[in-house]
Amino acid sequence: MKQAIVIASGGLDSTTVCYLLTSQGVEVQPIFFDYGQHCAETEWAKVNEVLPKEAMQPERLDISDIFKGSTSRMIVEADLWREAVSDDDLYIPYRTLLFFAVAAARAQTLKVLNVYSGFINSNHAKEIDCSSTFMNGLEELSEGVGSVRFHAPFREKTKAEVVRQALELGVPIGRTFSCQVSSSFPCGACPNCVERLQALVKADIV
Predict the structure, then answer these.
(1) Quick one: pLDDT at residue 125?
(2) Domain that residue 27 falls in
(3) What is the pLDDT of residues 147-168, one digit of tens each?
(4) Alpha carbon 120 to chain centroid, angstroms
(5) What is the pTM of this model?
C-alpha cells in the first residue's frame, strides 16, 4: 500500500486531503504541529475527531519553542471584546516552511516518500507562504535535498471547490476548525473564517 504523511490541523482543507487519500487506498499518517498556537488543544482535539477511520493514529510534534516571544495573535490570543485584530497581527514568518521541513525529516525517518498538505492558493495578503508560487519553489528546492516529495492537491483550487469535494468524500465539514483568532469557537471575522463562510455560500451549503 502507498503511504503518505499529511500535515493535519483539524481544518477543512487538511481533513479533506486525508479523506481523499484514504479513498484512493493510501495509508495516511497524520502529523500535527504544536507551534505554540493558542488554539493548539482545540485543533488537536479536532484532528482526533474528524479524521477518517482508515487513517493511522495522528502524531503530535511539539515545535513551540521556536516561536516563543512571538507577538502574533495566532500565538498570543486576543481579547475579542476589547482588542481589534488585523491581518498583519496573524502572520508568522517561516511557519509553513518550517512545517514542510519538519514533515520531510519525519517522513525520511519513517521511510515515507510523500508529504501532503491542505494548503490552497490563499488570497490572504500576508500568507505569502500559502501560495502556488511558494509551493512550486519548495518542490524545486526539495528535489536537490532528498527523496521526499511535497504535494498540495488543492493549491490551484478555490475554497468552494474544496468544500464541494469534501461533500463528495463525506468529510464532517461542520466539525472541522480553522479559526485563527479564537481558541474555543470560530470568531467569524478572521481571514480563515471569512474565506470558509464565503466558500460554504458558494457551494450552496448555507
Answers:
(1) 44
(2) 3-202
(3) 899 998 998 888 899 999 999 9
(4) 9
(5) 0.91
How far is residue 46's CA from residue 139's CA, in Å, rounded to a whole number? Answer: 29
Chain position carrying cell 511539539: 62
Count the domains in the chain. Answer: 1
Amino acid at 188: G
> For residue 119, what is the domain's CATH number?
3.40.50.620
**CA-CA distance, 206 to 194, in Å (whole number)?**
13
Q: How many residues does the chain have?
A: 206
Listed in sequence order, the residues at least 6 apart from 186 whose beta carbon sits closer than 8 Å to its beta carbon are 177, 178, 179, 193, 196
Phi, psi of 60 (to 5 degrees): -110, 120
Cell numbers of 4, please?
503518505
Task: Tell me what the pLDDT averaged over the chain comes to.
Answer: 88
